[in-house]
């Protein structure tokens, strides 16, 4: 004799499976959002031309639990209890950083900044410096020196000082919006 299941029992079982699958999906999404990756909205023009106001990014939150920030990376960090900033790492702990005549120096060696080439040329042609000079400073342990790519319009380590690595939210990995400008960093 074969068992027959009632249509009512099948519907209950199917509904329970859907509820379990939805619950697992929500839990996984919360874990991913909390510990691995998070969306971030670019608010302002301090990272132009690299990032534009209103773009949406995916930030890798796990990376700085494994390794410290590296020079050139675009990072999101807690600037205050209520505000996160996005900037580029210019120097890391133990390095010295200095700006003279629109030239960045790390450990007394000139550093090329290809992401600023167009802006530097334009500034030179118009008779001004893209980045004002600042004296040499050594980055303390557990900190990084960050600056926005839009040097004339950026509140960064020149103003707020070196940023503690413990304040890092993560590294910008990919621009996801607008969809016509999707790109990896």
From TrEMBL:
<dbReference type="InterPro" id="IPR019756">
    <property type="entry name" value="Pept_S26A_signal_pept_1_Ser-AS"/>
</dbReference>
<dbReference type="GO" id="GO:0004252">
    <property type="term" value="F:serine-type endopeptidase activity"/>
</dbReference>
<dbReference type="InterPro" id="IPR019533">
    <property type="entry name" value="Peptidase_S26"/>
</dbReference>
<keyword id="KW-0472">Membrane</keyword>
<keyword id="KW-0645">Protease</keyword>
<keyword id="KW-0812">Transmembrane</keyword>
<dbReference type="Pfam" id="PF10502">
    <property type="entry name" value="Peptidase_S26"/>
</dbReference>
<dbReference type="GO" id="GO:0005886">
    <property type="term" value="C:plasma membrane"/>
</dbReference>
<dbReference type="GO" id="GO:0009003">
    <property type="term" value="F:signal peptidase activity"/>
</dbReference>
<keyword id="KW-1133">Transmembrane helix</keyword>
<dbReference type="InterPro" id="IPR036286">
    <property type="entry name" value="LexA/Signal_pep-like_sf"/>
</dbReference>
<protein>
    <recommendedName>
        <fullName>Signal peptidase I</fullName>
        <ecNumber>3.4.21.89</ecNumber>
    </recommendedName>
</protein>
<feature type="transmembrane region" description="Helical">
    <location>
        <begin position="21"/>
        <end position="42"/>
    </location>
</feature>
<keyword id="KW-0378">Hydrolase</keyword>
<keyword id="KW-1003">Cell membrane</keyword>
<dbReference type="InterPro" id="IPR019758">
    <property type="entry name" value="Pept_S26A_signal_pept_1_CS"/>
</dbReference>
<dbReference type="GO" id="GO:0006465">
    <property type="term" value="P:signal peptide processing"/>
</dbReference>
<dbReference type="InterPro" id="IPR000223">
    <property type="entry name" value="Pept_S26A_signal_pept_1"/>
</dbReference>
<comment type="similarity">
    <text>Belongs to the peptidase S26 family.</text>
</comment>
């Amino acid at each position: 004799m074969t068992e027959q299941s009632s249509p009512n029992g099948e519907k209950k079982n199917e509904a329970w499976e859907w509820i379990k699958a939805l619950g697992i999906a929500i839990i996984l999404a919360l874990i991913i959002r909390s510990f691995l990756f998070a969306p971030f909205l670019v608010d302002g023009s301090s990272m132009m031309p690299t990032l534009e106001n209103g773009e949406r990014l995916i930030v890798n939150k796990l990376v700085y639990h494994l390794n410290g920030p590296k020079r050139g990376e675009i990072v999101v960090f807690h600037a205050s209890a209520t505000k996160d900033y996005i900037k580029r790492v210019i120097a890391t702990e133990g390095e010295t950083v200095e700006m003279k005549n629109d030239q960045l120096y790390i450990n007394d060696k000139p550093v090329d900044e290809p992401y600023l080439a167009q802006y530097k040329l334009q500034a030179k042609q118009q008779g001004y410096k893209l980045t004002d000079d600042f004296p040499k400073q050594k980055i303390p342990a557990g900190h990084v020196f960050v600056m926005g790519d839009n040097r004339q319009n950026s509140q960064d380590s020149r103003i707020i000082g070196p940023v503690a690595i413990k304040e890092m939210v993560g590294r910008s990995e990919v621009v996801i919006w607008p969809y016509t400008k999707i790109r990896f960093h």
